[in-house]
User: What shape does this take?
Amino acid sequence: MVLSRLGPPPDIRYFTPEQEAVATCLLVQLLDQSDEPDERRIPVTAMIDARLAEGESDGWHYADMPPDGDAWCQTLSHLDADAAKQFGRGFASCSLDEQARLVQAVQDLGSDAWHGLPAAQVWSLWTRYACTAFYSHPWAWDEIGFSGPAYPRGYKNAGVGKREPFEVRDQQPDLDPLRRGE
Assistant: This one.
């Protein structure tokens, strides 16, 4: 699984080409990957697209937001429309500074509405998916000093009550940790 993340990114299946262009620029802004050459940039857009195409969400979404896939498509369209209104061209055609101003404007709204959606929840959607994809990639692990999973093929001693060789038995196994505060 880990080594597959180092190969070519999956084909885009969920986003339209226009949405892919906007999403890529948005994610470069959020993750500050503008200085990375394209071949060394973590393919976050493709990773998010694959999740959405497979229907893999976080298992929940805000009640006042559409499901994540729809929310992504809507917010990318809104971002593109804001760029066209403010700068006379689509988001992907804007300069990095112009893109940054548009993205910052969404964050600055806080709990106010942005195109009928709570801006804070739009921000949460973008950053949750961006961080999940980015930090699942081995190149990001290099940047933060994480050497990778201890067992690339899975845990050695999986199962209830089974411990890995480095784990120790609880000193008071019968004490319920939720009752400690009573």
